């Protein structure tokens, strides 16, 4: 996701502050992204205490490796989400593999299916949270309120063509949740790229 544009000022400044060991920067980062991190971790792990622990691990990793984020490769929000995703999938694989080794039910194929489902669900959640508000509003009308494009257009005060366009774009974005762009491979020590 590299771009030629200059990274957003907040992302660049936050990375610099973290690299200088500014504890207040970590607090600010936590305030901004803790709910995102916890939500993604919970979606993958399906367990509140495990999500709490992973949230702490993600922010500890960021504190210990502030240079792992490169503002020129994309927004910090996306990087934090990708780091969370990778660490959560790694944790899920580790705990589920240990359960299988202790004689738990299932096979390694079942484990991989569970990991894939949890991973795709977490990506879908992130995509919905990150998509532009007009697209999300159209999808919410169609999915949660069971409105067709005509009803969604009336609800949103837009043309029917615009409602169809927003629904199509929103669904196209959601369809990428099953792609393996964010792999379940854990990051290298010290990096998350």
From TrEMBL:
Domain spans labelled RNA polymerase sigma-70 region: 29-94
Entry keyword set: Sigma factor, Transcription, Transcription regulation
Gene3D superfamilies: 1.10.1740.10, Winged helix-like DNA-binding domain superfamily/Winged helix DNA-binding domain
Domain of life: Bacteria
PANTHER family registered for this protein in UniProt: RNA POLYMERASE ECF-TYPE SIGMA FACTO, RNA POLYMERASE SIGMA FACTOR SIGZ
UniProt family annotation: Belongs to the sigma-70 factor family. ECF subfamily.
Name this polypeptide is given: Sigma-70 family RNA polymerase sigma factor
Originating species: Streptomyces bluensis
Classification lineage: Bacteria, Bacillati, Actinomycetota, Actinomycetes, Kitasatosporales
């Amino acid at each position: 996701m590299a771009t030629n544009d200059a990274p957003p000022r907040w992302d660049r400044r936050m990375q610099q502050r973290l690299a200088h060991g500014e504890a207040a920067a970590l607090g600010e980062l936590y305030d901004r992204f803790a709910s995102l991190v916890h939500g993604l971790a919970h979606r993958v792990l399906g367990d509140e205490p495990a999500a709490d622990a992973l949230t702490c691990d993600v922010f500890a990793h960021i504190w210990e490796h502030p240079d792992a984020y490169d503002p020129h490769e994309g927004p910090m929000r996306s990087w934090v989400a990708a780091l969370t995703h990778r660490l959560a999938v790694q944790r899920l694989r580790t705990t589920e593999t240990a359960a299988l080794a202790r004689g738990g039910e299932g096979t390694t194929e079942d484990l991989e299916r569970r990991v894939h489902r949890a991973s795709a669900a977490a990506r879908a959640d992130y995509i919905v949270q990150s998509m532009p508000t007009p697209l999300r509003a159209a999808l919410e009308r169609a999915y949660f309120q069971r409105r067709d494009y005509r009803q969604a257009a009336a609800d949103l005060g837009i043309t029917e063509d615009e409602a169809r366009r927003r629904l199509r774009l929103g669904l196209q974005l959601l369809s990428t949740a099953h792609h393996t762009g964010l792999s379940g491979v854990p990051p290298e020590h010290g990096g998350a790229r």
